[in-house]
Amino acid sequence: MSSHLQTALRLTADGLPVLPLRKGKVPFGNCPACAQNACGGRPNMKTPGPCTCPVPCHGWAAATTDPHVINAPTWARAWREAAAVAYHPGGAGLTVVDLDSAEAIGWARATLPGTRTVATTRGEHWLYRGAMQSANAVRPGVDIKSTMAYARWLGPGVGTMAGLPDVVRALAVKEPAPTRPTPVTVPAMGGGGECPHRTPTYLDRGIAMAEQRITEAREAVHATVYRTFLAVLSTHGRCGCLTEAHTARLFTAAQAKGETARHCTDAWTNALTTLGL
């Protein structure tokens, strides 16, 4: 029994769907007609390529936890020739943030919650509990591998695995092209309110602190944006001192964290409603 097959059987016992990889990190097909992907199989699709396979047998779709399938004669040659073992993270309820450079690792350490890490040839895999949509090149040197994707098994890693945070989920969301924020003018209270700000510096400092709070949010960004808008309006919203320039600064900070202009407007409007402004 090859060492890769032994590893595969051990991983399936832990609930990881596995498959063999040949040189170049390319999957095998698991039926004779698809050996070496001779049929032109599509490794990232749910269904096989232009062949008559009875079940999906290409790439991540071939990953299995069934030891009878893994030991089947159709995969015997694949395990003998395998260069590595891969697994389907999404099938095990996991997400892998694949960091392919020192710069990407530095970004992750400054931005993402700590979790289990696995060293790779050029970087690290950060593993989180929870599945999501896979996406490539979400940032320079950063891929997301979860559903409909596979990742090489490079060892159990170190550290405690954390739950999948919103900041990682947001990386796979394709937002529309950035647009200029649509600021909302804050009306003064009926009859006009007395301004409690002795100098413009007080208001500017409050806006700067709000921008910082949004920028430093690591997860639950939408909730953070709403709470920040609510705090700004509760302090500065009743005297009419907020200008379009102030709201534009807040919207810009929120959009830099992945919020859309519509989300910003909705959060601002909801905060106004909550405060009765």
Radius of gyration over all CA atoms, rounded: 25 Å
**Largest β sheet strand count, sense and barrel closure:** 6 strands, mixed
> Which descriptor suits the 3D outline?
elongated
Helix amount: 25-40%
The total of helices stands at 9
What does this molecule look like?
The protein has 9 helices and 10 strands. It has 277 residues and is of the alpha+beta class. Strands 4, 5, 6, 7, 8 and 10 form a 6-stranded mixed sheet that branches. Strand 5 (116-119) and strand 6 (124-129) form a beta hairpin.
List keywords for this structure.
9 helices, elongated, about 280 residues, about 35% helix, 6-stranded mixed sheet
Write the layout of secondary structure elements.
Elements: H1 3-13, E1 18-22, E2 26-27, H2 67-70, H3 73-81, E3 84-87, E4 94-99, H4 102-111, E5 116-119, E6 124-129, E7 135-139, E8 142-145, E9 151-152, E10 162-163, H5 166-171, H6 200-215, H7 221-236, H8 244-256, H9 261-275
Parallel strand pairs: 6-10
Antiparallel strand pairs: 1-2, 1-3, 3-9, 4-6, 4-8, 5-6, 7-8
Helix pairs in contact: 6-7, 6-8, 7-9
